[in-house]
Design brief:
By secondary structure, the chain is mainly alpha-helical. The chain has a domain at 20-62. It is 52% helix and 0% strand. The protein has three helices and no strands. The chain has helices at residues 20-29, 35-46, 51-62. The N and C termini lie far apart (55 Å).
Length: 65
């Protein structure tokens, strides 16, 4: 018998990981969003960046040199 793998697709909500949900989780864990993080998230929402573009902007901001 052949087993079929069921893949589950997540619904696209248009939200980023670092945003409202991150803030709620962070309250419990004691992590705070810096001003730069809040600005970056607001810019990403305003420019309607994709998740990949947003991740690249985070990586660019932390890149050295």
């Amino acid at each position: 018998m052949i087993k079929k793998r069921l893949t589950e697709k997540r619904p696209q909500t248009g939200r980023f990981v670092i945003g409202e949900s991150f803030q709620k989780i962070s309250l419990v864990e004691g992590i705070r969003m810096t001003g730069a993080m809040k600005k970056r998230a607001a810019d990403a929402n305003r420019q309607e960046m994709s998740s990949d573009e947003y991740r690249r902007s985070i990586v660019r901001s932390h890149r050295k040199g």
